[in-house]
Amino acid sequence: MTPPTARTWSRRGRTPVIRVRGRSRRRLSVAALVCYKPGERSRLIYRPAPDRRADGRKSFAWTDYRDLISAAHAQLGGPIVLVWDNLNTHLTAGMKKYIATHDWLTVYQLPAYAPQLNPVEGIWSLIRRNLANTAFADPEHLITAVRQELRAIQYRPWLVDSVLAGTGLLLSAA
């Protein structure tokens, strides 16, 4: 809920001020997959999870990632090669067992501390840039704004191609 800040223009001597009504510890977790298949447009598949979940968790559990991967498999209709970072929920015993039981899923771990190789970090950068200097009235306003930004990126496959190309992991996005 605390707004990210960015630079802006104003008249000399007049510093622009954005009033924030109050700070909140509320948060929104989003898991996303950037998908590439030769001969098809690149895709962004995501799942948001507000922190007011029934189970009391404030972040994604390995079962949430499992469900996202299963949904991506159903949507993409083919085998998946998953390249992801070393988040602790990606490395749980339950996730390892899930990966081992599905032959359509191949997983490669990124090296530690290598956000420049993770295309989803580029997606978060685009979202932060577009939401900078926005004071959110309530958690629903934040959720709506993030969903709108993610949908806008989904409908612009060249943005997804650009974050994939920025990692250097993709030789050509055509």
Strand and helix map with partners:
Blueprint: E1 28-35, E2 43-50, H1 62-76, E3 80-84, H2 93-100, E4 105-109, H3 119-131, H4 139-154, H5 157-167
Parallel strand pairs: 3-4
Antiparallel strand pairs: 1-2
Helix pairs in contact: 3-4, 3-5
How would you sum up this structure, described in words?
By secondary structure, the chain is of the alpha+beta class. The chain has a single domain, classed as Nucleotidyltransferase, domain 5 (2-Layer Sandwich). The chain has 5 helices and 4 strands. The strands form 2 sheets. A two-stranded antiparallel sheet has the order 1-2. The protein has a two-stranded parallel ribbon with strand order 3-4. Helix 3 crosses helix 4 and helix 3 crosses helix 5. It is globular. 9% of the residues are buried.
Helix count?
Answer: 5
Q: What sort of overall outline do the alpha carbons produce when their principal axes are compared?
A: globular
Distance between the ends: 38 Å
Radius of gyration from CA coordinates: 18 Å
Mean pLDDT, all residues:
83
Ranges where pLDDT stays below 50 over 5 or more residues in a row are none
Give the biggest beta sheet: 2 strands, antiparallel
Q: Tell me the β content.
A: 5-15%
What strand order characterises the main sheet?
A: 1-2
Helix and strand content put the structural class at alpha+beta
CATH homology superfamily name: Ribonuclease H-like superfamily/Ribonuclease H
